[in-house]
Amino acid sequence: MEIHEALYTTRMMRRLRPDPVPLDVQARILDAAVRAPNGGNTQRWHFVAVDDPQLIHEFGELFREARGLEYEKFRTGQGPMVVPGPGADLTAHAETMRRIKGSGNYLADHFDEVPLLLFVFSIDDLGGANIYPAIWSALLAARAEGVGGVMTMVLNNFRDKVNEMLGVPVEEGWKMSAMLTLGYPLGKWGVAANRRPVHEVSSRNGWGKPFGVEVPQPLWPTPEPADLAAAG
Fold this sequence. Notes:
NADH Oxidase; four-stranded antiparallel β-sheet; 38% helix; alpha+beta; 13% strand; 232 residues; 2 domains
């Protein structure tokens, strides 16, 4: 797969088929992940793949409970989901949250059908500088294999329980960074078109100064020359 296709079409996939992800596919995904850049080549990561149906069921129970906690925070005006992104109005944010909750509900209701969970752990990671490139590499590699997924932090609400269930050596300093649900998607891949354009979220030589070029629509597939114009 050409790199720009992977970059432009890798998106959150919460509706997954129950078909198992073969071990050789899992190996290629993680082999790409461990090639990610990391400071000093310290490789402060560990990945726990979970495909045992009983464990997945138990994590599904935790996932649903954790989502309930997050949406209760949202309902009462708390938590990170309450605040809209810069430049977004409240109505648009509310609609976005409605859609996200709908697809999240599907994942929660069908969690037992998810064929593969990937728990990602890190140690002394300086705010995620090492682990998040590895996670993104895993998601890109999964896309190249036709595997979709979503990264979620919601199980941090029950971090101690997750550590207990997976036997994490927390005494060594390991902490859960994220969980990925992975599988072959029911939906279709496509370019995320509902993004604010580059020139609205970018500056040059100082905050708020013009970026210098306008990008009114995605630049992949390769646009016509008129689609990329220097700002006046």
